[in-house]
Structure prediction request, 398 residues.
Amino acid sequence: MANSLTKNEYNPTDLKADFIKTYGGTEKDIRIFSSPARINIIGEHIDYNGGKVFPAAINRYLYVAIRKRPDTKICYKSVQFEGTHLFDINDNFTFRKEDDYANYLNGILSQLKAKGYRFNCGFEVLMASNVPAGGGISSSSALECGFAYAVSETFGFNLDRIEIAKLGQMSEHNFMGVNCGIMDQFIISMGKEKKAILLDCNTLEYQYAPLELGDYRFVVMNTNKIRRLADSKYNERREQCEEALKILQDNGTKIDALCQLTPAEWEEKKGCIKDETLLKRAKHCIYENQRVLDAVEALKAGDLAKLGKLLNESHKSLDEDYEVTGIELNTLAGAAQKQEGCLGARMTGAGFGGCAIALVHKDKVDSFIENVQKEYTRTIGYNAGFFSCESGNGVTTC
Ligand code: GLA
Prediction:
């Protein structure tokens, strides 16, 4: 688990000792869980439109150490963030801005309690993370799902991985106020090394696909522009898609999600939508869904050049039609796409900041990073962050 750590990364083998330093006691009864970040290879902003998405868990993890307490108190601390967040298991949890990251944890507790799960005591938690916060590789879902899994295992709730994913999504909807899709929580719960998942978000049917990239690697490029989903235009995009769907349905198109239309069907039906913005939003979704299917085929056929081309097309559509990129992501993707040894690049995740990914030849990764960094700093005025990643495992006991 601690392999290939850079000098700035937290080594999870320190977590038990850090827990004892923080809370006292002995190693006995401390349990440690890990939860990965994710990249979405392709299929952006279509999980909430019944589309197919193609994400992978990556080998950047967040760790949760947990121990039951003899009383009903709850205590959250993080190795990286100052401060202690204190609650009681009998609290009526509600979102409070000042609770900061503790909201993600309380959100999970509130949803568990609403489902009838009972806690016979409190607990203490120490977290450590090698996932950049607010960075578009789903640090928030890593936290939600890692914590949900830790609590479920510690208190004997034995939730399965898909239940963990749904709990994370419910917490986003009901507690955090973000109407996200299921993609992030699903891949973080279900991810497997060397695999990506083709997930049908309409039915939750899924299949693991070998992530065989030969001499190529995914490089994650972080804009270092922090944003929270709720601050962004995320919910607005979702509403626009729902509006477009409603117009199609009212005009006799028998679908219950936008991505049920093929591009050809869309071209035939789109005339009933008069609003330019809604037209662009829906177009992105329908063509992006097709790109996912094409990307999976390209990967199966070992055609990485084709995969790269689809990544570029996806970015263009997210920029021009879905309008969720911005200058930071466009600079990263644009600079990346020009580099020797790069087959393609696109933003990943919700956008509006956060991260992009690029498919880069392993021998060119260093020069790629150097060149893209130069262009980014020149245009944006501060540095981007870069790392090359491998696929990783979903939430698990360490
Ligand atoms: C965020 C959401 C996901 C998904 C992506 C965009 O990461 O949590 O559900 O909608 O944005 O593809």
In short: The CA atoms of residues 73 and 88 lie 4 Å apart. The radius of gyration is 21 Å. The mean pLDDT is 95. The chain has eleven helices and twelve strands.
